[in-house]
Each structure stands twice: as structure tokens, then as C-alpha cells.
Hints:
- This protein is of the alpha+beta class.
- It has a domain at about 25-65.
- Helices cover about 15% and strands about 20% of the residues.
- It contains 2 helices and 4 strands, in the order αββββα.
- It has helices spanning about 5-10, 55-60; strands at about 20, 25, 30, 40.
- The strands form 2 sheets. A two-stranded antiparallel sheet has the order 1-2. A two-stranded antiparallel sheet has the order 3-4.
- The longest helix is centred in the last third of the chain and has 7 residues, at about 55-60.
- It is globular, with a radius of gyration of 15 Å.
Amino acid sequence: MGRFDNQRSNRSGGFNRGFRSNFGPREMHKAVCDECKQECEVPFKPTEGKPVYCRDCFRKKNPNPRF
């Protein structure tokens, strides 16, 4: 059997800080968190009527993300 220790994620030294190896740097957009009201940056263009959360508030709402 092969090793299943996710070698692919270790090639970049862990978390990639917004750089997608196949697509270049990720475009970030300024927003205001709907929970704590702090200014933050998100990797998508915010849509009016949909909540936006900073990284900390998002983690509080989703303690076990799928990624």
C-alpha cells in the first residue's frame, strides 16, 4: 500500500497564503465582516444581501471546514 500522508500539501510548505500554484495569486476583495464589523479581505467578490465573515468569525461559525 502507498502512503496516505497528503504529500502534495507539503510541497509548498503548508498553507499557500493566497497563491494558487496552477492559477497564480488569488485576487482579494475588501469587505466588512457581518459578525464583528472589522474590515477584512476575502477571496471572492462580496455580493449584496449575502453575509461576509472575516477569517476568525468564519472559523467560529464553521469549526470543522472540509478543506
